[in-house]
Design brief:
Number of domains: 1
Keywords: Membrane, Transmembrane, Transmembrane helix
Organism: Amycolatopsis regifaucium
Shape: globular
Radius of gyration: 20 Å
Structural class: mainly alpha
Pfam families: BaxI_1 (PF12811)
Protein name: Bax inhibitor 1 like family protein
Length: 278
């Protein structure tokens, strides 16, 4: 299995040989087009993974994140005092606690999933719920300052996701080893720049996140890298399907897609905030 910029898809076990090759997103053959060959009478936990499995598990994960995110955002907005001029008068400790707590819990759950390298529906849904709280708390802060920005970020994230899915399904951009290496390298490079900028920000130097021209360009680059990372996520899920991995591994594919969606949403939200500044 090819390498991926998404740590969730690193070092996955190969599909069980007894299932034989299945059919991925772009290779219909036999059975129902696009959904693999006719299924055997094996139990649901043993049958090969299909496109439907990935779609359903991803939808459940995304739906969970949306519910907890919207509820948290509504709560956070109600807690944040805003002056008549539109300035935040202070961030309540409860909101900060929810944000930091969800960030830490989400990180722990993601590390457990990544290092165990085993699919888990409960853990994936728990990760999605916690990330929803994290994103909801951040969105609430931005929304208190710039009404309507959260919805714009959601629409933008959905648009990028759908566009990259169309690009992948139509074969407009082929996921080759060369492209994979380029995307992985870009992700590593962006991560290093973010880390360096975080350190320098403690000394008052924050060029990549200060809302200026350089920050806008950097955010656009990060959004582009995150968008292309979807191609690798789709390709990895496609390979898991074609290699006949058990259906329960669809939860792992859903987790991988969720991590990229969270990253993309945060960066789009940040970029939109730059254009709100006077």
């Amino acid at each position: 299995m090819r390498s991926s910029s998404n740590p969730a898809f690193r070092n996955l076990p190969r599909g069980a040989a007894e299932y034989g090759p299945n059919v991925g997103f772009n290779q219909p053959q036999g059975g129902v087009p696009g959904y693999g060959p006719p299924q055997t009478s094996a139990g649901a936990g043993d049958r090969p993974m299909t496109v439907d499995d990935v779609v359903i598990k991803t939808a459940l994960s995304l739906g969970t994140a949306l519910v907890t995110g919207v509820l948290t955002a509504i709560w956070a907005i109600s807690q944040i005092p805003v002056s008549a001029s539109g300035k935040i008068m202070g961030i309540p400790g409860a909101v900060i606690g929810a944000l930091v707590g969800a960030m830490i819990v989400g990180l722990v759950i993601s590390l457990v999933i990544i290092f165990k390298q085993k699919p888990s529906g409960p853990l994936t849904l728990a990760y999605s719920a916690v990330e929803g709280v994290f994103l909801g708390a951040i969105s609430g802060l931005f929304e208190a300052l710039y009404p309507g920005i959260a919805l714009q970020a959601i629409v933008g994230t959905a648009g990028v996701f759908i566009a990259m899915l169309v690009v992948y399904k139509t074969g407009a951009v082929k996921v080759t080893p060369k492209l994979t290496k380029w995307i992985v390298g870009a992700v590593v490079g962006v991560a290093i720049l973010m880390l360096v900028n975080l350190v320098t920000s403690f000394f008052g130097f924050n060029p990549l996140r200060d809302g200026g021209p350089i920050a806008i360009i950097f955010s656009l680059v990060v959004i582009g890298v995150a968008a292309f990372s979807f191609l690798l996520d789709f390709d990895q899920a496609d390979r898991m399907i074609r290699e006949g991995m058990p259906s329960k591994w669809a939860w792992f594919a859903a987790f991988g897609l969720m991590t990229t969606l969270v990253w993309l949403y945060l960066e789009i939200l940040r970029l939109l905030s730059y254009f709100q500044n006077d």
